[in-house]
Structures are given as structure tokens and as C-alpha cells.
């Protein structure tokens, strides 16, 4: 059984003489929240337009739900929901009426309207005109529209664009619920790396139309950990310093009351803590100076790829 809901093989695309995608390889496992990242001009929007059948596939192969997009476009789209930035709503109509119009187009059963309104938390506001909706409510209604045919795959491009912190949180929690409770695979493109960090388990980073990294967020952090340090605060830093040196640990320049120790793997943090405590030294704090997703993203896109963990 194919474990991937989206696959691209050697996907290339150009607008005239400008090459946008170059042998792009993507593998999106079923049941994941998959972050799709890249700087402006990396080819993210073009990729999404191809996945949704809005652009042809001139070179390479694109598979969704195990079907080739070139030959099965309509069957694929029936199983795929999408929200690209802001939803297109009829503002003079209620949320319910917007859903009813869309339901008729996608031929979804009538009961789906009440179901999706409940899922996105808009049941109480269903009969209000959407002109009265906040941006966050509008985005959730847009996701409801995408959910009407009960697709297994949701493609969301910048779903939190323009939202305030409250709206961002509402959409994030909805995405997590859709994945956790309903088993939806979410293909999520966003410039808000902190949101990807809170949602995604798998991700791909692309630049200039090529895949620089693909794998789990956990693997990415583990790859970065090799270059990081531990910051330690103890009740006797001078004794701790000598003890760590005697045990062949590499200490960096000391700053104020903090010891910094070069580490190669996260297991060394536990070993260092054990060593100090067993020698009568109280450890007040021990913190891995790990890079966050934003720092890793900038490192990869500015300096080239780290060793990729390709599926």
C-alpha cells in the first residue's frame, strides 16, 4: 500500500525561459501535517497550482492519492480540498448560504453543511452575513468550504495570512484537530515558521525550484544538534569546569556565571548532568542552545542543504 498521498518525480516547470521548478521531489506521507517551506520565488505557489490542476504537468510525474494527475485530474480533485490564502465568499450571503452554493457545485450531501459548520466552530454564526465575519471566521469558513466533499487531503496556502494572534491560534487549533480527530492529511504552506513548528511533523524546504531538505521535523532538529552547545549554571562553576575538562568535554569561553560545553549528540546532556550531580555539584539549569526552525530554515536556504533525510 502506497504510504504517500502526494508524490512528485522529476517535476520541472518553466514560464518561458525562466525555470521555476527543477526536478522537484516531494513525498507527503498520509495522515501527516506536512509543512511546505521556501523563500519568496522558491516555487511553492507554482507547485501548489500544479497539485490542484491549475497548471499542466509538462515534465515529470505527479501522483495524488496514488493516481497520476495527468490522467485522473477530476478523480483527484474530488478527493482534495484547498484554501489558497483568503477564501472567495459572497459577502451579502450568510455562511450557511455560501456553503449551500458550494455544496451544489461539488455535489456533497446536504447533511455535510451542519457537519462542517460544527467542525470549524461556526454553527452559532451560520446564518450571519459573512460581511459581519472577522478574518479568522472567514478563514474557518473557507476551510469548511474545502471540507464539504469530505476530502482526505487538504492543501492550505497561507491560511493564517493577515490574521491577528487570536485568529492565527483558532486556525492552528483547527488544523491540529482536523489531522488528529478526522485523520486528514494537511499540506500546509506558510511564511509563519513558528506556526509550522507548532503544527507540522514532516516538512520540505525548497529553493530555486529544488528540494533542499525533506524529512521529519525531529530529524531536522537532530541534524542541527551536532553543532550546538549546552549552557550550564551550577553552584560551583570552577569545580564543574575542571571536572568536565578532566572527562574530555570541550568547554567554550565562559560567559558570566554560565558554562558552555560543546556537544555532539543530545545524550551527552544527560551524561554531563549525571557526572556533575554524582560529584556533589548542584545543577541549577541545563539548556541546549538549539536552533529553532527559523534559524535552521535560514541556514539551509542561505548556505545550502544539510544532509537531507529524504523519505
Automatic annotation (TrEMBL):
<dbReference type="InterPro" id="IPR003593">
    <property type="entry name" value="AAA+_ATPase"/>
</dbReference>
<dbReference type="InterPro" id="IPR003439">
    <property type="entry name" value="ABC_transporter-like_ATP-bd"/>
</dbReference>
<dbReference type="Pfam" id="PF00005">
    <property type="entry name" value="ABC_tran"/>
</dbReference>
<keyword id="KW-0547">Nucleotide-binding</keyword>
<dbReference type="InterPro" id="IPR017871">
    <property type="entry name" value="ABC_transporter-like_CS"/>
</dbReference>
<protein>
    <submittedName>
        <fullName>ABC transporter ATP-binding protein</fullName>
    </submittedName>
</protein>
<keyword id="KW-0067">ATP-binding</keyword>
<dbReference type="InterPro" id="IPR027417">
    <property type="entry name" value="P-loop_NTPase"/>
</dbReference>
<comment type="similarity">
    <text>Belongs to the ABC transporter superfamily.</text>
</comment>
<keyword id="KW-0813">Transport</keyword>
<feature type="domain" description="ABC transporter">
    <location>
        <begin position="6"/>
        <end position="233"/>
    </location>
</feature>
<dbReference type="GO" id="GO:0005524">
    <property type="term" value="F:ATP binding"/>
</dbReference>
<dbReference type="GO" id="GO:0016887">
    <property type="term" value="F:ATP hydrolysis activity"/>
</dbReference>
